[in-house]
Amino acid sequence: QVQFVESGGGLVQPGGSLILSCVASGFRFNNNPMSWYRQTVGKERELVASIMSTGSSMYYIDSVKGRFTISRDNGKNTVYLQMNSLKPEDTAVYYCNAGYTKPIWAYWGQGTQVTVSS
Fold first, then answer.
1. Would you state the pLDDT for residue 42?
2. Left if phi > 0, otherwise alpha if psi is -120 to 50, otherwise beta: which for 55?
3. Which of 5, 71, 79, 112 is the most buried (most CB within 10 A)?
């Protein structure tokens, strides 16, 4: 059974930082790329960043380049998203899924809410 458990979200002021974590299970984590997505009310879920299975290559959408860093720990089945210089437009529920720029699984976890506000 595929499962994603996201955590680390919260309320932060503009310019602040957060580290999100996602623990995955139910599939061969080490063999799969992983990605972070985000969704706001009334909008479709969008890709934020992807990382290859070995961590050798990463992809970021333009709006987060230079501010966000995706990483993974294959020993812990965990993917991370370090978010710096946060902006109000980064406010969203953040999710993870397997796959590189496209989700592999139809199942999604509960996500973790990130709110950037003064």
1. 92
2. left
3. 79
